[in-house]
Structure to design on (446 residues):
């Protein structure tokens, strides 16, 4: 199909779902080739929440191309069984030698992107989200910890509920990590703390319950209405958490990671007698 | 056993232990990591090297019922031990209920932490067949996951516990 890379986010599953749905075939009947540009088209990088929305839409279009070609050549009726579909493909291959369908991305007419100045709309539609963090700041240890985290994520269309939720919860966990724990220390161009003993990421005991809710407003430019999904949940948690910390201790923090020593420094500078626990 | 502990005698030696119910004898340097012996000599590549310093838990295996980081364990300490790796959990094609639950609940994404995570969960459920959410969080806190945010891993463990309690 395409060269978008699977690294656990569910690309293979969802692209096969899209192809199956577009072809009117059971999911089990679709096989996806390895992401090797010797075999499949170069579908661009696996980044920026574009796989399902942009590449998925191309898979959908190419699959529809197959279906419409078979119907137009009289090999297939409007409704068909997987066996009839297979037979139609065999006839087409027998006649033509091979049977492939291609789709190429074209930006919608009303979407303009200037690649020289990096201005304009990169995508035809963007996802939306609301992130709410409930935070406790312990004024003995100056540690901020998150008690509860809620995300409402508008993704156009949820194509696979389990995988979609995994993308959101995982992104939020990474967002929480770089907000409260993960400090990269550079020295002479090298990361000084590149070990898990001194670069601290959240364990299962550090994270709050992450509650994910979806809204689906559709997107005519994405596969079956899907928008991007993976990146946004990494962007929103830090501001939500810093706002909650500000609400608790009435001090505006503007940088991350926010470690206990940063909170200590700010609050002790402000009021040397601060103690206790606020929420 | 004396030869194993002599720093003047770092030559390979024969070691025997049980892996997933089968007795194995390997010829290995005594201070070789159990992880390397499992992966390279015994071709059990389920245990993964994440950090290589005992922090992430992706190399977890069960050694005499205890959950250990196989990247920190010199193979000589496995002499005579009973080891279970992720490959020993399924019965042929029949997946363990934890593996099934990880599949249905979305407990695995990139998969590097998954073998260790499932063994940690297995170890937890043996001690606490019906764990609370806090016990699950605590029980898995030695195994790091970068992809999932742990939420669906917790759900998978709770689901596996339910399946056993109900069956």
């Amino acid at each position: 199909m395409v060269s978008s890379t699977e690294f656990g986010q569910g690309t293979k599953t969802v692209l096969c779902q899209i192809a199956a749905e577009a072809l009117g075939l059971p999911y089990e009947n679709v096989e996806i080739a390895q992401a090797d540009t010797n075999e499949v088209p170069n579908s661009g990088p696996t980044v920026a929440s574009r796989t399902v929305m942009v590449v998925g839409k191309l898979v959908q279009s190419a699959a529809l191309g197959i279906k419409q070609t078979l119907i137009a050549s009289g090999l297939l009726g409007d409704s068909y069984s997987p066996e009839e579909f297979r037979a139609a493909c065999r006839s087409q291959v027998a006649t033509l030698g091979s049977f492939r369908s291609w789709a190429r991305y074209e930006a919608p007419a009303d979407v303009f992107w200037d690649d020289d100045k990096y201005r304009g709309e990169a995508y035809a539609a963007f996802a939306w989200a609301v992130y709410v963090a409930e935070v406790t700041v312990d004024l003995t240890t100056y540690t901020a910890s998150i008690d509860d985290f809620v995300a409402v994520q508008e993704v156009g269309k949820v194509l696979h509920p389990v995988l979609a939720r995994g993308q959101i919860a995982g992104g939020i966990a990474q967002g929480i990590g770089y907000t409260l724990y993960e400090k990269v220390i550079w020295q002479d161009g090298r990361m000084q703390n590149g070990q898990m003993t001194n670069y601290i990421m959240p364990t299962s005991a550090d994270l709050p319950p992450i509650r994910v809710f979806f809204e689906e407003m559709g997107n005519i430019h994405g596969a079956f209405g899907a928008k991007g999904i993976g990146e946004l949940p990494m962007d929103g948690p830090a501001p939500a958490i810093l706002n909650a910390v500000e609400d608790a201790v009435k001090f505006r923090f503007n940088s991350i990671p926010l470690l206990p020593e940063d909170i200590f420094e700010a609050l002790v500078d402000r009021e040397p007698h601060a103690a206790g626990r606020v929420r | 056993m004396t030869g194993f502990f002599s720093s003047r005698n770092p030559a390979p030696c024969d070691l025997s232990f049980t892996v997933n119910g089968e007795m194995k004898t390997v010829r290995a340097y005594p201070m070789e990591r159990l992880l390397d012996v499992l992966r390279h000599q015994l071709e059990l590549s389920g245990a993964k090297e994440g950090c290589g310093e005992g922090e992430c838990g992706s190399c977890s295996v069960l050694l005499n019922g205890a959950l250990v980081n196989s990247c920190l364990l010199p193979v000589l300490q496995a002499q005579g031990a009973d080891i279970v790796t992720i490959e020993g959990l399924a019965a042929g094609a029949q997946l363990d209920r934890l593996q099934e639950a990880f599949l249905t609940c979305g407990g695995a994404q990139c998969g590097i932490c998954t073998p260790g995570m499932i063994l940690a969960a297995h170890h937890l459920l043996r001690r606490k067949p019906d764990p609370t959410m806090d016990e699950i969080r605590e029980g898995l806190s030695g195994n790091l996951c970068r992809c999932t945010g742990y939420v669906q891993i917790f759900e998978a463990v709770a689901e596996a516990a339910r399946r056993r309690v109900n069956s």
Q: What stands out?
A: Chain B touches chain A through 30 residues (CB under 8 Å). The domain at 97-166 of chain B is CATH 1.10.150.120 (DNA polymerase; domain 1).
